[in-house]
Amino acid sequence: MQHMSKSRDPGSRLAEYFEFEEYETDLRTEVIAGATTFLTMSYIILVNPAILSEAIEIEGYTDQEVFQMIAIATILAAVVGTLVMAFHANRPFGLAPGMGLNAYFAFTVVILLGVPWETALAAVFVEGIIFMALTYFGARRYIIELFPAPVKFAVGAGIGLFLLLLGLIEMNVIVAYDATLVQLNDVATDPVALVALGGLMFTFILYARGITGAIIIGIITTAIAGWALTLAGIVERGVLAPAQLAAPQYDITPLAGAFLEGFHQIDPATFVLVVFTFFFVDFFDTAGTLIGVSQFGGFLDEEGDLPEMEKPLMADAVGTTFGAIIGTSTVTTYIESSTGIEEGGRTGMTALTVGVFFLLSLAAVPLIAAIPQYASYLALVVVGIIMLQGVTDLNWEPPAWLISGGLTITVMPLTASIADGLAAGIISYPPIKTAMGEGEDVHPGQWVLAAAFILYYYISAGGIISST
């Protein structure tokens, strides 16, 4: 009788399913770990719609209504990707639309290149399908061999600089200037810049003190400060707080499925480049994050590999594909998962907890529209600076690493394009490596990839194929 009662206990069933005994953990530890991971990555619920709404416009709906639609899509994509991670991979990693690629989606692909946002979603969908297929057939090793090592290691830092510059611009700290392209704004006379910088410093202090959820706390505190100054009559409504608030918008049908329309408006060359960039960054960002957090959690084998890595990669691919269907950019595994691992999270129960918290956050969507965008963008600066740690992964001594890696990092922010940064690194690597007398180490596919990029830019610049 006692055995029957135990078999019906949800806690014991979860313990058996997620193999608590094997990983030396328990339900309480896993739930606390999941809550911790959610708090550290929940800023994406605010930041992703803030970025994507710059590019996505839906006729008949206000900016705030579109903002809420994207917030819901962000949450649902995070839920699906994280649940696949929980039940398919049994790993304690949280997933959500990734920083960097959402900015590339909005500011480079849609705004700079002029690609319709529906087509950009179609590119994300195609990238997700390709990712799923390659993961299913175990082609990860061949993909890794194809890309120059310095480019792979430089991507994170390059994206970090891109986000850092973008965040400071959106916070009115840096402004356009003809002579030098950008310059420091007259911060003392700009209330948005003043409040944003105050919030940024507060967030840095929280982060430095190791406060869990430093970014989301910083965003909310900055928003409250903006509202307080507005309600006190110090600044006019619409400067530090939204001029008006929209009614709750839970209907995302105008956004969901819009990627299908995108297949009718494709410029083949540009579409292939966009798909390639989404895939490249998503693949190596996810792979790098998985290795990093797995090392932290002691999941790697003696060769430094994550056993059954295809399973967490599949969670990323499924999340990306589903996200594109409902209207958001590429989904990836979050490095913030390490905070939950530090709290003892070892199994998919941690990821399941993250997914449940994301699902519960749907109730807060109407409040999200009250967050001023400058408050959300401070997350880009904080995340961008954190990503600069990637420069230590580069070996700066060999010329091939110095030149290829250096170009990848610097060209991204200077062109506001992750794709252009990748191209600079990929094109420069084979000839520099050959000039060093190490041409035999260059994979034939790396020459083909470099030649393909050169051909694309030649055709685009020559006006044969317009990229705008």
Automatic annotation (TrEMBL):
UniProt KW keywords: Cell membrane, Membrane, Transmembrane, Transmembrane helix, Transport
Organism domain of life: Archaea
Subcellular location: Cell membrane
Keyword Cytoplasm carried by entry: no
Cellular component aspect of the GO annotation: plasma membrane
Family annotation (PANTHER family): XANTHINE/URACIL PERMEASE C887.17-RELATED, XANTHINE_URACIL PERMEASE C887.17-RELATED
Protein name in the entry: Xanthine/uracil/vitamin C permease
Record organism: Natronococcus jeotgali DSM 18795
Lineage, opening ranks: Archaea, Methanobacteriati, Methanobacteriota, Stenosarchaea group, Halobacteria
